[in-house]
């Protein structure tokens, strides 16, 4: 059954969209990631214009992160103060990203920048995750019985501690400068606008390794920030570029919500480090596919793009 | 008698102008005056009916349907540092977003390329006309760019040609079928019918067609374009609501 998408202006099989939503939702439920980094390239692959894919995916992430953030809010595993600060950076990053996106689109280079950002970020994150999980699996198989000591021992002082404008974060038990959270937020907000992702795959490692937040509040706080940054991105893309397709977003959301429930159940039967290794493989696969497309000789040496009036 | 009846049906909605008795003439009407794109739109077939006066064995018929003009930017991919980058852009204004041609004989057997270029019939001639300002402005060879536009249109079934797509019936009547693909752009379309004799156009007529979004599609599209900020807010609230519902529905289990 075909459905015509009013903003993307093309006709797509409705079950393909529900299936995509469910498939990516399953993986995101299983791995606890947003799935934007999978969905946006897939949408472009089935012919959705890049501008519409990126903006619409931001809209879908609003729904999935709202559901996740609420659950963490109830369990009190969410540092709202830290989230608010990340959000200040994220909001300005999002505003900047949307402008940058419109500018790159006017140059005809948006596809290249999206692909390059994906290859770069997915390559780095996937590679790091892969080595980390491989080491964890190897260590467990040797069965040394050593516990990874994240809580054990005093944290070392780093350059982060020497920055000014310090603030207390009771829920995270931190007393640090406001500069790193705002900077991280800005960076992730920009990525979210350009790549059509929530940015959790950058934010979570940054919170753990740079801000040294306790892991139990990391996911909730990240979802909190993602919720509001993607909401702002959606609002700006819709207002400025008219590229948010609400029909597409809702179909993906319905599929995604259902898929995520099954994914979360499936994820419970797999060990954490194996799950991370699988996720790393998936991230690297998407990275390689996009990288491959950049280097192979294209079938058509010319590309025809709409010009003039933005968003048709 | 039957032919006259069919003719009368075919001409419904299209005022028939009285032409001088002997002069060859052509009239045409489409089965639709508007095509509505609704949520289940997946392309549509259109039939163009027409009648000719004074059709002889030497005459051929050409039917052209062209869509609204779009401004395009065409770029050539070049390898830089191992990756392919879009470069050398050229801009073309008012390129037809849709172009279908149906003929009673292969087009090259109906008229010479020069004659077609003069009357602007056929995709190469049409693209050459739209490219004229670009050719003036640049010193580059634009022909590979025009070929790229043609390929891109054909890939999406927006440019199509049907040799012998015009069926000549008895009594000077004819029928052509044209198909609108799923990617059909909205806007004003013009259908033109040409009567060729000895490789020259001796009569022509045009009919209009409007492709527009209708129903829910139109509502959403107009909402998104006329009140973009309000629409953005609506999308965000809807998504948050969906997230809330999902959270409540699944956390109770």
Can you describe this structure?
The complex is a heterodimer of chains A (312) and B (253). With 312 residues, chain A is mainly alpha-helical. Chain A has one domain. Chain A has helices at residues 14-31, 36-45, 50-74, 80-107, 110-142, 179-195, 200-209, 215-241, 246-267, 272-295; strands at residues 2-5, 10-13, 166-169, 174-177, 302-306. In chain A, a hairpin with a 4-residue loop joins strand 1 (2-5) and strand 2. With 253 residues, chain B is an alpha+beta fold. In chain B, strand 11 and strand 12 form a beta hairpin. In chain B, helix 3 crosses helix 4 and helix 6 crosses helix 7. Residues 5-20 of chain B have low confidence and may be disordered. The interface between A and B is large, with 59 and 59 residues.
Summarize the structure.
Chain A is mainly α.
Chain-wise SSE layout:
The complex is a heterodimer of chains A (312) and B (253).
Chain A: E1 2-5, E2 10-13, H1 14-31, H2 36-45, H3 50-74, H4 80-107, H5 110-142, E3 166-169, E4 174-177, H6 179-195, H7 200-209, H8 215-241, H9 246-267, H10 272-295, E5 302-306
Antiparallel strand pairs in A: 1-2, 3-4
Chain B: H1 2-10, E1 25-30, E2 34-37, E3 44-53, E4 59-66, E5 69-80, E6 83-96, E7 99-103, H2 107-110, H3 113-119, H4 123-137, H5 143-155, E8 159-162, E9 166-168, E10 173-180, E11 187-197, E12 200-213, H6 215-226, H7 228-251
């Amino acid at each position: 059954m075909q459905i015509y998408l009013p903003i993307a202006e093309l006709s797509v099989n409705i079950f393909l969209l529900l299936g995509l939503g469910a498939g990516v939702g399953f993986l995101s439920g299983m791995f606890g990631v947003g799935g934007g980094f999978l969905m946006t390239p897939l949408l472009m692959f089935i012919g959705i214009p890049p501008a519409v894919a990126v903006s619409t995916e931001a809209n879908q992430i609003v729904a999935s992160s709202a559901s996740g953030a609420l659950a963490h809010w109830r369990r009190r595993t969410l540092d709202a103060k830290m989230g608010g600060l990340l959000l200040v950076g994220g909001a300005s990053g999002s505003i900047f990203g949307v402008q940058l996106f419109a500018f790159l689109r006017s140059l005809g280079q948006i596809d290249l920048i999206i692909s390059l950002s994906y290859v770069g970020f997915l390559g780095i994150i996937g590679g790091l995750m892969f080595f980390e999980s491989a080491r964890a699996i190897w260590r467990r198989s040797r069965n040394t019985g050593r516990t990874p000591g994240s809580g054990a021992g005093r944290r070392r002082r780093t350059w982060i501690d020497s920055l000014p404008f310090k603030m207390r974060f009771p829920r995270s038990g931190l007393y640090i400068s406001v500069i790193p959270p705002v900077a991280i937020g800005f960076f992730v907000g920009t990525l979210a606008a350009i790549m059509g992702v929530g940015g959790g795959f950058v934010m979570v490692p940054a919170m753990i390794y740079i801000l040294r937040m306790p892991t139990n509040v990391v996911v909730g706080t990240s979802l909190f920030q993602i919720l509001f940054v993607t909401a702002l991105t959606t609002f700006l893309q819709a207002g400025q570029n008219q590229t948010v397709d609400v029909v597409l977003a809702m179909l993906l959301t319905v599929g995604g919500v259902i898929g995520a429930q099954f994914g979360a159940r499936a994820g419970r039967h797999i060990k954490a480090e194996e799950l991370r290794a699988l996720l790393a493989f998936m991230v690297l696969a998407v990275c390689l596919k996009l990288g491959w497309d950049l280097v192979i000789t294209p079938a058509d040496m010319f590309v025809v793009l709409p010009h003039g009036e933005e968003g048709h | 008698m039957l032919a006259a009846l069919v003719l009368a049906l075919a001409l419904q909605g299209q005022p028939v102008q009285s032409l001088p008795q002997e002069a060859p003439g052509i009239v045409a009407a489409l089965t639709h005056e508007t095509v509505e794109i609704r949520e289940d739109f997946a392309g549509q077939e259109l039939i163009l009916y027409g009648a000719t006066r004074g059709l002889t064995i030497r005459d051929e018929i050409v039917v052209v349907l062209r869509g609204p003009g779009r401004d395009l930017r065409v770029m050539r991919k070049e390898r830089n540092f191992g990756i392919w980058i879009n470069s050398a852009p050229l801009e073309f204004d008012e390129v037809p977003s849709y172009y279908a041609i149906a003929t009673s004989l292969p087009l090259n057997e109906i008229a010479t390329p020069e004659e077609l270029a003069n009357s602007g019939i056929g995709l190469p001639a049409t693209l050459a006309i739209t490219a004229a300002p670009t050719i003036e402005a640049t010193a580059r060879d634009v022909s590979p760019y025009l070929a790229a536009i043609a390929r891109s249109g054909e890939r999406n079934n927006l440019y199509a040609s049907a040799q012998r797509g015009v069926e000549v019936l008895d009594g000077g009547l004819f029928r052509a079928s044209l198909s609108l693909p799923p990617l059909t752009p909205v806007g004003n379309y013009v259908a033109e019918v040409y009567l060729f004799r000895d490789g020259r156009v001796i009569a022509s007529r045009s009919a209009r067609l409007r492709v527009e979004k209708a129903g829910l599609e139109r509502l959403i599209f107009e909402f998104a374009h006329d009140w973009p900020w309000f629409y953005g807010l609506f999308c965000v609230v809807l998504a948050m609501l969906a997230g809330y519902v999902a959270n409540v529905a699944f956390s109770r289990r």
